Amino acid sequence: MFDRAAGFRGPQRRPRREGPAARLLVLPLLAGLVLLLGAPATAAQAAPACSGRPAKTVGFATGELRVYKSRAHVCAVTVAKKPGKKRAMSVTLQPRGGRVVKDSGSFTKMAGPVTVNALNRCVRATGTVAGKSASTGWILC
Q1: Residue 52: partners with Cβ closer than 8 Å, 6 or more residues away
Q2: Which residues on adjacent β-strands are paired with residue 53?
Q3: pLDDT in tens, 28-76
Q4: Residue 33: in which H helix or E strand, if any?
Q5: pLDDT tens across 78-111, in order?
Q6: How far is CA 135 from the centre of its chain?
Q7: pTM for this model (two decimals)
Q8: Which stretches does DSSP call E strand in the chain?
Q9: Alpha carbon of 110 to those of 6, 23, 82: distances in Å?
């Protein structure tokens, strides 16, 4: 630290050496973090595509119709029971006295979301997966 001939040199720093024990601790922690962050979510674990609180869920043979309600909007999605291969799916949502909003096509997991403005109005939703369907009737009146 202090050498009379050279003056003050400051604190001496030693090179940092990590032993094999430190490496053995870090590698499993990193592997666990990768598995935790990179794990694919299932349909049940996935975050909902719609905002708001769940208002109604109707299950049927090949999927599930989910309806969500926020203060002024209603949103709906159709989710396949067994995601994977593409198949025909659709979801429709209609406020009473308003036009039908629809999303249809060939999807692997989910049709939708579709959203309508439904402040103080009843709505009805229909979901279809591979020819099987479910409907809510008029709800949220």
Answers
A1: 68, 69, 70, 73, 74, 75
A2: 69
A3: 555 554 444 444 444 444 456 899 999 999 999 999 999 999 999 999 9
A4: helix 20-38
A5: 999 999 999 999 999 999 999 999 999 999 999 9
A6: 23
A7: 0.67
A8: 2-3, 7-8, 53-60, 63-69, 73-80, 87-95, 101-107, 110-117, 123-129, 132-135
A9: 74, 43, 10
Among 75, 63, 61, CA closest to 140:
75
Q: How far is CA 76 from the centre of its chain?
A: 14
What's 96's DSSP letter?
T
Instruction: List all residues 6 or more positions away from 98 whose beta carbon is below 8 Å from its beta carbon.
Output: 116, 117, 118, 121
- The tokens describing 82, both together, are 């067994």
Closest CA to 62 of 84, 45, 41, 40: 84
